[in-house]
Design a protein that fits this description.
Length: 347
């Protein structure tokens, strides 16, 4: 672990004495914060939420907007420069555009993005754009209406097409579409998605199925490896690897010979990228998670509601991040699924 130039920030106790940036014990500098604003969702995706039988947080259990904004300021002071808003489904959180405008006003924040299933996006788009949001990742697991409904529990495909047009008209392009591939469910659509990317000029990101589903249906044999996605497309439409924007980029990005459209492949299970991870998460109920698969959480809401000072919170966050996990252990025999499901962590 190279500490050149940052000896002052780490002492042998492993505490961050000087918190100009967030670093873990492996020397990874954390710049990217995912904020989940709700654990509620209006979809029931098979790789995430069952139709029935899961509890949701009450309003008072959730961080309120003042608390989220205060924490965001502290995280940015610690060197976070990118915030992604997630859920559950973030658009279910009433008044979200107002919160985004407050986050967007934080000096030092360079990038504000949101992951959504897009079902409510059409109504809220004008307010979200006025709030300064320009980056959207929209879930799209199938290009077939019936299968879309089977995978998400909702007849939402027409709305995805509507919102795609609205975003194009608003100049928000390319749009990124997230597709979770599951063997035997939608893996026969890989080439159709490649055509979709080329014909629309948008980005399709193929995401390997991860063991975070509430129904505990995840099996290794249901994972469609990123390598297979690449070979399936490349064998018909030759792909060109695009340069990574940063070492911590999760997707390997490719474009087509025609130069129009892009695909991203996120092989978090079969080719983990944890060694370059620069991400941490804040759950809707105020827990800091240093990894998507963390078994440990750090209670920021408790500290906030005990009137901790900004300096206390800053130090607590920095000391917690030192203990960030080396990576997920999905491929290890002793892997234990986290207690929380994806809907309670956020993408
Ligand atoms: S599994 Fe954890 S360490 Fe690995 S990339 Fe995801 S958040 Fe980072």
């Amino acid at each position: 672990m190279s500490l050149a130039g940052r000896e002052d920030s780490l002492s042998t106790s492993g505490k961050n004495e000087h918190t100009s940036h967030l670093a873990d014990s492996y020397g990874r500098v954390i710049r990217d914060l995912r904020i989940s604003v709700t654990d509620r969702c209006n979809f029931r995706c098979v790789y995430c939420l069952p139709e029935q039988g899961f509890s949701q947080k009450t309003r008072s259990e959730l961080l309120n907007f003042d608390e989220i904004e205060r924490l965001a300021h502290i995280f940015v002071r610690l060197g976070i420069n990118k915030i992604r808003i997630t859920g559950g489904e973030p658009l279910l959180r009433r008044g979200l555009p107002g919160l985004l405008a407050r986050l967007n006003a934080i000096s030092g924040l360079q990038d504000l993005a949101m992951t959504t299933n897009g079902f409510l996006l059409a109504e809220l788009l004008p307010d979200l754009l006025s709030a300064g949001l320009r980056r959207f990742n929209i879930s799209l697991d199938s290009l077939d209406g019936e299968r879309f409904q089977k995978m998400t529990g909702r007849d939402g495909l027409p709305r995805v097409h509507t919102i795609m047009t609205m975003l194009e008209e608003a100049g928000v392009s390319p749009v990124k579409f997230n597709c979770v591939l599951i063997r035997g469910m939608n893996d026969d659509e890989i080439l159709s998605f490649a055509e979709f990317a080329q014909s629309t000029g948008h980005v399709v990101r193929f995401i390997e199925f991860m063991p975070l589903d509430a129904g505990q249906a995840w099996r290794r044999e249901l994972v469609v490896p990123g390598r297979e996605v690449y070979e399936t497309i490349h064998s018909r439409d030759p792909l060109t690897l695009l340069p990574a924007r940063s070492p911590s980029e999760t997707a390997r990005r490719y474009t087509f010979q025609g130069g129009k459209g892009e695909i991203g492949i996120i092989s978090s299970v079969t080719e983990p990228f944890c060694g370059f991870c620069n991400r941490i998460r804040l759950t809707a109920d105020g827990k800091l998670r240093t990894c998507l698969f963390s078994a440990v959480e750090y209670d920021l809401k408790g500290l906030l509601r005990e009137n901790a000072s900004d300096e206390d919170l800053l130090r607590f966050i920095a000391d917690s991040v030192v203990h960030k996990e080396r990576g997920h252990r999905i491929n290890e025999p002793d892997f234990i699924r986290p207690d929380r499901t994806m809907s309670c962590i956020g993408g």
